[in-house]
Amino acid sequence: MDMKLLVTGAHGLLGRSLLEPDFDAEMIGCGRGETPVGRGTYHPIELTDPQVVFALLDRVRPDWVIHTAALTDVDRCEIDRPLALQINLEIVRHLASACLQLGLGLVQLSTDYVFDGRNGPYGEQDPTNPLSYYGALKLQSEGVVLQEGLKGLVLRTLWLYGYLPGTRRNLVTWPLEALARGEQLRVVDDQWGNPTHVHDVAQALVELCRRQVQGLFHLGGATYLTRYQLTQELARFFGLDPGLVQPISTVAAGQQAPRPLRSGLRTQALESLLHSAPLRLSQGLEQLAGQESFRRDFSTLF
Ligand SMILES: NC(=O)c1ccc[n+]([C@@H]2O[C@H](COP(=O)([O-])OP(=O)(O)OC[C@H]3O[C@@H](n4cnc5c(N)ncnc54)[C@H](OP(=O)(O)O)[C@@H]3O)[C@@H](O)[C@H]2O)c1
Predict the structure, then answer these.
(1) Prediction pTM value
(2) What are phi and psi of 111, to 5 degrees?
(3) CB-ligand 1 contact for 70 (6 Å cutoff)
(4) Cα 51–chain centre separation
(5) Taking CA 18 as the corner, what is the angle to CA 16 and CA 23, rounded to the nearest 5 degrees?
(6) What atom of ligand 1 comes closest to residue 198's alpha carbon?
(7) Whether 170 contacts 16, CB under 8 Å
(8) Mutate which of 75, 139, 140, 160 to test ligand 1's pocket (most atoms within 8 Å of Cβ)?
(9) 72 pocket-lining for ligand 1 (C-beta < 6 Å)
């Protein structure tokens, strides 16, 4: 164990996945709650306070900070802009300034919402044009992390799924719960993307830190489809009724924040760098179905 990584957002989906005992690195978690999580040391922290952030980084002195904490509710970001600004940009500035002073690496997680969704899937070189406030803040945060002099890495990802008990529902666990109860679901059929198994992202992040890679990369799963198709696939895979899933348009869904429609991320650059490819949706679902905690907490599916 030669590498020390500090993971913010320890209770979130990606944070929890990074803190699973799968990686050969010293993993230290920090999060808002008092309840420790993960196998290593845990620090409760409010990241909005720059002095608290500096003190923690100074004490821990990780090789890299992997910053997964964020306000990830895109519609809430659109409505509560001051809060979104504070969490999704100001915190990144505090972290970047502390990392710069202490000579630490900083990884920022970003999103396909930096694109407008006119002609995805997108590569790293494609022009950005965020439609939502969440996307605009994430784009600005990329600039902060990729600034001159800072050891910075930005990984854009999208449509994260997986299961870690206690994390908020995601685009796979939420429909599965509803479909298992026999509920009808209305799901948008004009938003395209590639669902990404959270473990693929965690694995790539650890490997990129180990190799001291800097710059901007995309990571999205190997299956490209609409949200509606994804939900139907889920139903079929777990032997539930796909007829419960009704297609609707994004306009009819009436979401607060505008969404990129034909979105998605191309991952070739990272694949050739790491010599590994992210999972297809069917492979990700197989992995999920074999996971002990998922089988226990979703026992009605088996
Ligand atoms: N999920 C996706 O599909 C997706 C797609 C593209 C990009 N990303 C990016 O990937 C990263 C990880 O996403 P995720 O799905 O793992 O997020 P998540 O499950 O929503 O977790 C985010 C975590 O950040 C914590 N947090 C928020 N504000 C904080 C603060 N002021 N101080 C300390 N902790 C704070 C939250 O704590 P509380 O639990 O206390 O709120 C939560 O545990 C994020 O940067 C996200 O924008 C995610």
Answers:
(1) 0.98
(2) -150, 160
(3) yes
(4) 26
(5) 135
(6) 16
(7) no
(8) 160
(9) yes
Distance 53 CA to ligand 1 centre (A): 17
For residue 13 and ligand 1, the question of a CB distance below 6 A is answered with yes
Phi/psi zone of residue 212: left (φ > 0), alpha (ψ -120 to 50 degrees), beta? left
User: Could you read off the pLDDT of 114-143 as tens digits, one per residue?
Assistant: 999 999 999 999 999 999 999 999 999 999
| Closest C-alpha to ligand 1, atom 43 | 12
Give the distance (Å) from ligand 1 centre to CA of residue 71. Answer: 6
Report the separation in Å between the CA atom of 13 and the middle of ligand 1, taken as the mean of its atom positions: 7
Structural domains of the chain sorted by starting position, each given as residue range(s) with its CATH number in brackets: 4-301 (3.40.50.720)
In the numeric block, the tokens 């923690």 are attached to 56
- The DSSP secondary structure of 25-81, one letter per residue, reads SEEEEEESSSS--SSS-EEE--TT-HHHHHHHHHHH--SEEEE------HHHHHH-H
3-state class of 156 per DSSP?
A: strand
Active site residue 163: no
DSSP 262: B
What's the pLDDT tens digit per position in 73-124? 999 999 999 999 999 999 999 999 999 999 999 999 999 999 999 999 999 9
Pairing assessment for the beta strands 215-219 and 185-188 based on DSSP bridges? unpaired
Q: What is the 3-state secondary structure (H, E, C) of 208-259?
A: HHHCCCCEEEEECCCCCEEHHHHHHHHHHHCCCCHHHEEEECHHHHCCCCCC
Question: 72 CA to middle of ligand 1, Å?
Answer: 5
Task: Give yes or no for a contact between 220 and 112, defined as CB atoms under 8 angstroms apart.
Answer: yes
